[in-house]
Design a protein that fits this description.
The chain is α/β, with parallel strands linked by helices. Helix 3 runs parallel beside helix 4.
Length: 137
Amino acid sequence: MGKTLTILLIEDDVIEVMKFNRVINSLAIKHKLVEANNGEEALSILKMKGVTPDIILLDLNMPKLNGIEFLRILKNDDFLKHIPSVVFTTSNNPNDILECFRIGIAGYIIKPLKYEDYFVRIKQTLDYWCGNELIYS
């Protein structure tokens, strides 16, 4: 069995957050989930002492501070840039994908439409990161 992760989910769509929570709650490993509605809120959470997630999952299309803007700020912060960030979005735009990898993401996943496929993608992603050696600061 893998280790428990602290996951920062940055997602503005309430239905997507509910689906993600449904997946998390059905897994054998009980991960800790911290939620932010947009990049601005996520940065506030990350600046609080004692809240350093093991992994960040984020959408690209969000109000206030979108995913790419958030990633640029994150990856320029010496304290936060080591956190693996996986984009989980509906955008299959090649320019978005390329730009995210240039910034330094750990993965890019297009959200599946069917819940069963969604479940598998989230589970595979979290299983992968449970088996990785992560940096704890």
